[in-house]
Amino acid sequence: MSGEQRRGGADTSAEPGGGQKWSATGISEDADAYQDLVEESPDDVLDLNSRWLFQLGNDIFGPISAKELVEKLYAGGIDAETKIAPEDGEFLALRRYGAFRVHLPKAAAHRAAEQEARREEKAAKSRVLRRRAVFIGGGLFVSIAIFFAVLTVVRERRAADLTAREEQKLQDDLARLHASVTIDPPIIDLKPEEEEPRPTQGKGKRPRGGRTKVVALSGGTEKLSREEIMVGVSTAFPGVKKCIVQQLQRDRDIVPERVMLSFNIGNDGVVREVSFDDRFLRKSPMRDCVAQTLAGVRFRSFVGEVRNVEYPINIGR
Predict the structure, then answer these.
(1) Read out DSSP for 273-300?
(2) Is 20 helix (H, G, I), strand (E, B) or coil?
(3) For residue range 206-239, what is the model confidence (pLDDT) as tens digits?
(4) Same domain? 124 vs 97
(5) Is 141 part of a structural domain of the chain?
(6) Per the domain annotation, does 292 fall within a domain?
(7) Distance CA 247, CA 181 (A)
């Protein structure tokens, strides 16, 4: 068994000199306590105050004092396997020297404590950074939320203002369209009373120019006057104008500047055969709308001919 293996069997856990710790002044003051741990021949006693060399890879550094060498051991710059040698001596692993080997467990504990302290410091910094990130993130989130809330309010206000302006514009356009539509006084076909057919000599023959007399409804009175027609139809003017404006909004091009609205009033007081002189408008939604509007106007029953009425309507551009 070699001398290194024999030394490895010795109890080195206890600190020499009754548990004395390495002082800041180095190991030179404890040289006597470590003399028996240095594996050197009695003729070549190790002097701990000597200068030392150490090897890292292929490079050799030094000379430095024993204190500086121990400080490097505690700092982690060298370890138990680092080769060291006194000046002009043989390079051996640091653990081969008892004077330094006694510091190995304390250096390991020191480095572990430093690593733990660094881990704690790093963890503390990480916690601070996390709290700061959470704080900044929370502040950023609140700022973004406030920004979008303000932006939403601004957009809603702008949209409301735009909607109000558009609605007002539509109202103004409708008002202008309504104002552009004027209905002239009616042209009422006042035909003379129809005569009774004269007797003739042939069967089923009537004299030329004869007309069938309109039979009055039960309860009917005198014929419907022009004033009654104007008053009755005037109640439908707003609805008629609305129908025309709606057609202008749908398709302004098919509506001429002047149209003739025509209809007749039967003896029962009901408006029928609503039409326009323009062939395009006869089949348009405008005609149906006007017919429905005028259907709501009811006149009294009367005797005489059906009243044919025409209203010229002017549409400004």
Answers:
(1) EEEESSHHHHTSHHHHHHHHHHHT-BPP
(2) coil
(3) 433 333 333 333 445 688 888 888 898 899 989 9
(4) no
(5) yes
(6) yes
(7) 12
